[in-house]
Amino acid sequence: MEADHQSFITYVALGDSLTVGVGASFLAPGFVGRYVRLIEKEKHVNVCTNIYARSGIETDGVLDIARSQALHSKIERANIITISAGGNDLIQASKDFIESGETAELVQSVKDCHSNMVRIMGTIHKLKQQCGIPYRVYLLNLYNPLPQIQLADKWVKLFNQHLNSFHNGKTILVADLYSAFQGRQDELLSRDRIHPNNLGYKKIAETLSELGYPAV
Length: 216
Known about the structure:
By secondary structure, this protein is of the alpha/beta class. The chain is 51% helix and 14% strand. It contains ten helices and five strands, in the order βααβααβααβαβααα. It has helices at residues 17-20, 31-43, 59-67, 69-77, 87-100, 104-128, 150-164, 177-181, 185-188, 198-209; strands spanning 8-15, 46-53, 80-84, 136-140, 172-175. A five-stranded parallel β-sheet has the order 2-1-3-4-5, with helices on both faces. β4 (136-140), α7 and β5 form a beta-alpha-beta unit. α3 (59-67) packs parallel to α6 (104-128), α5 runs antiparallel to α6 (104-128) and α6 packs parallel to α7 (150-164). The chain starts with 7 loop residues before the first strand and ends in a 7-residue tail after the last helix.
């Protein structure tokens, strides 16, 4: 083993029900567990995993988690950080749109999501500035679970466009779940038609893995 390489990788997973693994069958891992297996196989290291996620949480909730003092040392030491957020904001805004017919709810939701993501990434950037260890942040963009709502795809694309603005190709990369799931919703979504099934979570893990890993 090379002396300048770590024997383990520290991974912090932040987010919503995707990070929790909702939709996977009983005892089957979500994308986090599957992704960890791929990291260990590719890098030949052990992965120390810390999951901070909650089902139903919106981007403002993920921001609260990222800003939690108890999490700061975990983020500082993390080699890999994944963030899943925005899907619940979309679902809530879509429900409001169905009830009111007003597109203003969707437009405002996109703005709020972007604002929250700017704050989340700002928090992480501040914590990582002096960390002195190789790391990468992987942002999961949104697939469209609501193709029956015409404006949903427009909302998702706009959110993803904002998310792409964080991509720098070095320490921050965007995992393109939109393309991975496009036209394959029947195959990759669970019975609730919102969350991925086992195959969907496998696809997410593979999409993340294809982006490579930090040089540790």
